[in-house]
Amino acid sequence: MAGSKFIPDHGLTARMLLTMFLLGVVYVAFVVALIYVGMPWPLVVLVVVGFAVFQYFTSDKVAMFSMGAREVSPEQAPQLHAVVDRLCAMADMPKPKVAIADSDVPNAFATGHNRKNAVVCVTTGLLRRLENQELESVLAHELSHVAHRDVMVMTIAGFLGIVAGFLTQVGLRFVAFGGGGRGNNGPAPALIALGVVVVSVVVWVLSFVLTRMLSRYRELSADRAAAYLTGQPSTLGSALTKITGEMGRIPSRDLRQAEPFNAFFFTPAFSKKQGFSLSQLFATHPPVEQRLEQLAGISRQLGQGT
Fold first, then answer.
1. Does position 278 have pLDDT exceeding 50, yes or no?
2. Catalytically annotated residues
């Protein structure tokens, strides 16, 4: 995490390296398996590499477009820019782009495949509900994702699951509507499609589990980094409690639209009741109680001067 004053997190670094290594192994096995079950290798390269390049270079733009977000200038959002400017000065890091998403779902996220393309975005719902110090704490959390570079790792890690999901859908539709005629010199196209589906499902499950494990840890890491940078862990806890409580008042339709971005959000877009019905295996974030408990411990440490 060179180049910023956010506290280093060697545990996060180790987990990111392990996740990327394991996903790399899965990636290679994925390509080999697709070719083995009969998918033409030029098509494998085109789909897998094409998706990888597309997502890597357009992930920030796709996220912004999907959330209805727009980049704002200091003249358009002076208070928001002032908070980001102050935090970047405190953290001694380059300032990312600043954006606002027109959504009543109170949340924030960071995206971008490198620091030059990094974007920190808040929703209009968040701006309406938080006090200035609470907003500062949430933005410090998001900036720590950029400084830790875990946004980049999550972006790269996510593409494998997207490719696997895409191939699963294509394979199932081919089996359903493409018929089962024999190939000229090999297995029937339907059998190849079934093989692609099986391989893709296995890869999707593995990539899903690996990214979820990293996602939960990185949120705790960002909470710690933000709390130590601002010196106000209780303010971050207040923002977390307020946002989580407000989620229950957001229409279900709006929450469902925002759900695909849960892995990148400050807090997941569902009500507290819905959130606690999910298995920890599938959760993008650790439980709110665990996050608040960690912040309370940091508050005690700072209060004792240790």
1. no
2. 142
